[in-house]
Write a structure and sequence with these properties.
about 0% strand; mainly alpha; about 80% helix; GPCR_Rhodpsn; Rhopdopsin 7-helix transmembrane proteins
Amino acid sequence: MYSLICLLFAVNISCTTAIVPNMLMGLAFGLDHISLGSCLFQMFFIYTAVILESTVLMIMALDRYLAICRPLRYHNIMNTHLVGQLFLIGLVQSSIFSSPIIIVVSQVHFCRSNIIWNFACENMVLLNLACGDISKIQVVGMMVRILVTATGISLLLVSYLYIFHSTMKIARGKALHKTLHTCSTHLIVVVLNYSCGLSSSILYRIPISVDVQNLFSAIYYLLPATVHPFIYGYRMKEIRMCLLKSWKIL
């Protein structure tokens, strides 16, 4: 479980690294110019990291399922080798899902203003500068988001249905409380991530100000990465105790 938490944090850091340095340079020094190629690369990096984050959350759900429903075989199945393989598969899958969005946007003809009023390059932001009919291009981005979200939520629901079914049959008292506590930590992270993503997607399709869009994009990309360490640090006793010892509070 701890290796998966490290992977989740690494993905969070990679996503924020693609956004925050450029944003801060623009705010501090006015270095707010970006080429189309760099913008598309930033889009690819951000979307790959976001989809990969969803994959890591699914692997964590699998980890919880094996730990609770197959405890005797857990260490034989959920080893570092399997986690590495699943992560690499997720990385390749995330790149494949992100590529169609970047490809179709790169072929768009831009004839409006060359100024984007957002702190990061996104699909809808660039399409707002495009000429002609972009409905088919918008469908590509929407289909990718629906596919990724539906797949992630479905697999997470199936995993937790099995977990709760097995837990209610075999666990009692403190064992039940510990199991539910461990699962609830992961569920809090899942709900946070998907609710931020859905809110951002919905708000890009309704007429609201750019400032509000920027706010919710920042919440979507940056809030989970900021909050995840606090969630796991507070709710997982082992991590909390280790931090307290390192800070010499205990």
